[in-house]
Amino acid sequence: MRLPRFEYSAPTTIDEAVAELSEYKDEAMIIAGGTDVIPSMKQRRFTPKRLVDIRQIRGLEYIQSNKDIRIGSLTTLGFIEESGIINQRLPMLAKAAGEVGAPQHRNAGTIGGNLCLNTRCWYFNQSPFFRQCRPVCYKLGKDDDKCQLFPTRKGKANVCYSVYSGDTAPALIALGADVCIVGPGGERVIALMDLYTGDGKRPIALGFGDILKEVIIPFPSPLSAGIYLKHRLREAIDFPLVGVAVNIALDPKDGSCKQLKVVIGAVASKPVIVAGVDEIVQGKKFTDQLVDKVSSAAFDKARPLPNLLGCSQKYRKNMVKILTKRALPLALQKLTDNYTK
After folding, report:
1. Count helices and strands in the chain by DSSP H and E runs
2. What's the confidence (pLDDT) of residue 27?
3. Domain boundaries of the chain, sorted by first residue
4. Mean pLDDT across the stretch 114-134?
5. I want to staple 323 with a disulfide (CB 3.0 to 4.6 A). Which of 126, 166, 229, 288 is the partner?
6. Is-contact 170 228, C-beta < 8 A?
7. Residue 153 confidence (pLDDT)
8. Mean pLDDT of 29-47
9. CATH number assigned to the domain with residue range 224-340, chosen from the 4 options 3.50.50.60, 3.40.190.150, 1.10.150.910, 3.30.390.50
10. What average pLDDT is seen over the chain?
11. Are 211 and 73 in contact (CB under 8 A)?
């Protein structure tokens, strides 16, 4: 399938890119690795007038470790997967990056692109021929077009139920990451979770002219460990049907739980933080019963959208509980191994 016609530019500085994106507004799109943008353009999900290639901007591909760990937005997922610093200090992130697609995707795809991944839906992610058989969906159309899978009730606002399926975001959110965004108004730093709107039609909170510059991750506490587990149809290439990131920190005095974060991916239009798990485990030592309680809390919080091919909503909800129940002992085992070294 051929690409639609478009204009192309390759600015060499962030200021040039910001100015160009601000000028063209919704007629322009950023391209870096191109692993998501190019297939989407071939399937006419997007037909931007202009592609702004930011790969020529120097200084956005790096991993720095000082007071915290900073990763430039053009750093490839393959580089993160193999990085000594990341594997030593943030092994959960290395694992999550290694779960994305195939090696070819990871060698081209960037961390910025994976975090800004567009949402997916079995109606939206189809060929033009398939979509011509039905009315235009809300995500592809204007504000008065309705979702073709979940019709909007009379008097209710239109809602897009497409699913955010990035792998690195749940892991980074569990690690407490922030992101630095450069735009017409200068630089700003926000919590990574705030990058996601929860609106499937406009899932990423970047305005016209905004560029994600870097990811900022605080150093994890010495007695902490994280695990990211992903369930998909095939062992490679596929997007997750469910992803679960767990990050545990223990109190060095008595080994009780000091902090726990559980983040679920691929069940909603943004990653889902499981609220209340800290209260369940705070000051307690992990037991099988405690693991069951946390897994049940994740199960209760998950509301998988029934618009991904391959399995039912009920199955994916059950997999949230199963993956959480698997991840917690694995993280605790990593803590034990690291502590005894």
Report:
1. 12, 12
2. 95
3. 57-220, 224-340
4. 88
5. 229
6. yes
7. 66
8. 93
9. 3.30.390.50
10. 92
11. yes
